[in-house]
Amino acid sequence: MYSFLSALLTPYTAISITFLIILKEFYFSRRTNAPKCPKLAFPIVGHAPYVQFKRFHRQLTEWGNNFKKTGIYQINIFGETSVVVSSYEAIKEVLITKSDELGGRAKLLRTSLTTRGGKDVAFDNFGHRFIQKKKLLMKSIKVHDQKNIELEQVTLDVLEDYSRRVLDKNEIIDFHEFSINLMFDIIMAILVGHRVNIHDQRLQELKESYATINKCFLNQKLAIYDLFPWLTYFYQSKEYKEMKQAIKNRDANLSSFLKEVREEQLGNILGEQGLYDKFLQEQRKQERDNKLDDDECFMLAMETILAGYTTSSVSIMMIFALLMKHPRVLNKLINEIETTMGFNEPINYLKKNNMPYLEATIWESLRFIRHVNPIPHSAMIDSTIQGYFIKKGTQIIINTRDLHHNEELWGDPSNFRPERFFREDGTLMAPDEGCRKYLFVFGGGRRVCPGKGLAQQRMFITIIYLLQRYKFEYVKDLNDENYIYNSNEWDFDIVLHPDQFFVKVSRR
Ligand code: HEM
Known about the structure:
Strand content: 5-15%
CATH architecture of the domain at 143-194 and 275-294 and 308-372 and 411-438 and 441-508: Orthogonal Bundle
Radius of gyration: 24 Å
Number of strands: 11
Largest sheet: 4 strands, mixed
Structural class: alpha+beta
Helix content: 40-55%
Strand order of the largest sheet: 1-2-7-4
Order of helices and strands: HHHEEHHHHEHHHHHHHHEEEEHHHEHEEE
CATH class of the domain at 143-194 and 275-294 and 308-372 and 411-438 and 441-508: Mainly Alpha
Bound molecules: protoporphyrin IX containing FE
Shape: globular
């Protein structure tokens, strides 16, 4: 039996089957009311020869310029169809109106490997288990929960440590590297409930493994395995082996670190409680049939770190870059801090509602930078977007980058202007009001970012803490302004980010 099967599974049979599938897909899309393509597709490979992985975000915009009216088009790569949506109406339909039917995730080899087959939230398909994990995550990171207010102190402890070790030296620093380290340590501290030892070898290695895995997401040579996973049975490239090794190292280091922290905390009556403890506590409360397994809890911790530091580090770095370029906004912000919080008072997140200008500055920065695009969705059933037929399993790329800089909606999208989110009476717009309704920086609907509150709280605390104590100066000779302020020029791994950004820091 085995030899019969292996005789059938020769590379030639596999290639022939793939060829037939591609032909079927190609002709099927011709027969239906499918979205149009930006370019003529080649037989078999489709639009693959046009794709530049590192600059894919730019290419999506260029292609999208031909479909501004409908805000939807499709591309085909080796028979896999992806629909790209960029108008407000199409994005709203995908994220909100048809959230359930268009909120799936494609099962790809790379995401499966990094998440133990979708045991996390972000790459799991929509379904009962996904809902359970997402609920648990959201419940644990609710920012107004008493325990999370205590976690503010943990964030402040890390900030104080970085002040002493890095910022008080009055030096020029690479603010990109600084924000990655700061945000990584903050999210680790929140996860375990106390400041972590930055010299712990496991944490250094953990950070390196994350960086290697993130880079694998833009590696063209690895994308081929997503399209043809069966290739791994015949040939595993050097890059593929490196990715697998990095995943192994990440999991070994994180697991050893979390185990040690748990053992220490069990012996500690005060029991400093971090998010990971909360995941385990919630797990214990669950009924036996619905209990999340240990792998799922571990993947929640892994993803909280990943989603927490990659997104927020670029946000913090760029908020400061934008404030340096716009002294008018910086002065208004400093005035707001002075009148509501003071320069010597401890930071209190409960005062957030008295600081609308800071809130609007965070929204405007995320809109302006647009470094995080939603993870591609997938159609759970045959459906439609803006009347176009979308076949079950089609990938949907939601181009919020274009939405957030659409001139018709924003008027002056290239200007950095937090005031755009204020009503005439000086109060902040509601989520469904004015231009704020076009803002999808945290996604929306079923797949909305569960870390939205946590991220905003961290940014709020970090911005106030740093502005209360330091002045930041843009270093003209070491930075290329056209590169720093234009995310089109940046590279993509999990999010878009510049390589370096040099800033002179001094005490206020
Ligand atoms: C500035 C910071 C952040 C931004 C801009 C951001 C943005 C986003 C966006 C746009 C999505 C995709 C929604 C979709 O696929 O439709 C997302 C998903 C997600 N985010 Fe965040 N995020 C941030 C911080 C965080 C933090 C701190 C966490 C930690 C818990 C987190 C956890 C997640 C998870 C688990 C998902 C997947 C949700 C799902 O698939 O249902 N994010 N985020």
